[in-house]
Amino acid sequence: MLAAAAAALRDVSPDLRFGRVVAVRGALIEVEGLVGAAQIGARLRIEGLDAPVEAEVTGLDRGIAQCMPFSDPQGITSGARADLMAGRFALRPCDAWLGRTVDGLGRAVDGKGPLPRGEVPRPIKAAPPPAASRARVGAKIQTGVRALDIFAPLCVGQRLGLFAGSGVGKSVLLSMLARWTECDVAVIGLIGERGREVQEFIEDDLGPEGLARSVVVVATSDEPALMRRQAAWTTLAVAEHFRAQGKRVLCLMDSVTRFAMAQREIGLASGEPPATKGYTPTVFAELPRLLERAGPGRAGEGSITGLFTVLVDGDDHNEPVADAVRGILDGHVVMSRRIADRGRYPAIDVLKSVSRTLPAAHSPEENLLRTEARRALSTYGDMEEMIRLGAYKEGTRAEVDQAIALAPAIETLLKQGKNDRGFAAESFAMLQSILVSDAGQGGDAEGDA
Length: 449
Known about the structure:
This is Flagellum-specific ATP synthase. By secondary structure, the chain is of the alpha/beta class.
């Protein structure tokens, strides 16, 4: 009888469970007293001297719940009460979020008042749609960036990575894509961004027109690792909300690398062993779970077209995060410091950039033009040092002579200012004019001879 009564009591969920803080080790807070109640991902509200601090359970160790805070843990004392918050945290986005800026927890940070709540809860960390029920990648869309529209086209539901070192124009390219890429809604995640650049991006780069169709999720570099990771999840959760409504969503995230760094901090603080370059195994487990959430939805839903920036460490495009992300996404765009140094922006290296929707994304005529231009740029790149040194003699190889004539004009075509919008049809017409003009000059030269 007593055993049955004890079992029945264990099955009863109490109205409130709380524990006590027993240790604070850097960013890690240890709480005891929540055995059998705390789960990974559960949220706590911990008493502080000035204000309560919200935290999330990131690990469990022999009766101790290991937690990370969403804000500065200053003011937490040993023995402080930690209340277990009921239920799983979920967002409730709605159309009224368009034009607003929120933090990783879905709270307004733009000074425009509280956010309205939608009817349908959206989990922060959701599973991607099942592979067998997902729609296929759709038709090509214009980005307004000539280098992409010609050499690395973007299609509805595709996920493309922008790989770049620091200071080569990655943020400016992202702002061009945010304003010009065809979509119904844009969801922009600024993960680990410099605080001073947030307002510059919203007011100058995005502008009132771009902001009106966008939701911006911000977690600056000074915020705790948990908030930076949460902001990345929130970005995808908001995008999933609009995809479920049948809309074409453009999801921009700057950057996936800072998400990986935040996950590394969380893993190391929880005692996870470091692996490649200090990144923990959960980093490489979380990357596909995050990135696979973008893409086409189920039948009857819309799509999330994803553009994710990757900040390559020391311009090493084979560093662990870049290598892992490149294998997950549907293409990668490489931005080169060498090209930026000679003043051509956006500094996209078209020879190293790949879109896995090619050749189907282009018409046969467009593919022919793209292939000819790419061949000319490749030939010029192979001989560039000899040409600059004057070691190549004109007339030695016909294909090199052709590349010398074509490459400067193609480079000029690919050069754009941040307010110089391109159009795909016009870009291909200009490229065709360059290629045909060179062919005509070659024919005249042979006739004169």
